[in-house]
From TrEMBL:
This is PaaI family thioesterase. InterPro entries: ACOT13 (IPR039298), HotDog_dom_sf (IPR029069), PAAI_dom (IPR003736), Thioestr_dom (IPR006683). NCBIfam families: unchar_dom_1 (TIGR00369). Keywords: Hydrolase. It comes from Hymenobacter nivis.
């Protein structure tokens, strides 16, 4: 999260929002935000939403991520919103949206696996 310059702007049980100011390092050759960066923001949002619902000594990792790109991300700021659809003991089913300056650029669904603390 810190490597791409993202910050969490809202944290609530089962829901988070994150933002990143778009820099040249986030863009591909045509000036759009790179698809990998958009996917990273979706993964970050879904994953942190899942983290809000597990005990402090537990973690989550991405088991599955599917991203649909709807529009090119052109602008000054990416905003990712992630939420948990269903939480379980071992898996959390999540969704995320990535917006660029108020325009929806991607929609994602993710499965996050819950990691228990080492015995």
């Amino acid at each position: 999260m810190h490597h791409v310059g993202a910050d969490l702007t809202l944290i609530a049980p089962g829901r988070i929002e994150a933002e990143v100011v778009i820099g040249e390092q986030h863009k591909q050759q045509r000036g759009f935000v790179h698809g990998g960066m958009v996917a990273t923001m979706a993964d970050l949002a879904a994953g942190f939403a899942a983290v809000t619902l597990v005990p402090d000594d537990y973690g989550v990792v991405t088991a599955d991520l599917r991203v649909s790109y709807l529009n090119p991300a052109v602008g000054t700021k990416l905003t990712a919103i992630g939420w948990v659809l269903k939480s379980g003991r071992r898996l959390h089913f999540c969704e995320a949206e990535v917006w660029c300056d108020g325009k929806l650029v991607a929609k994602a669904s993710a499965t996050m696996a819950v990691i228990e603390p080492a015995a």
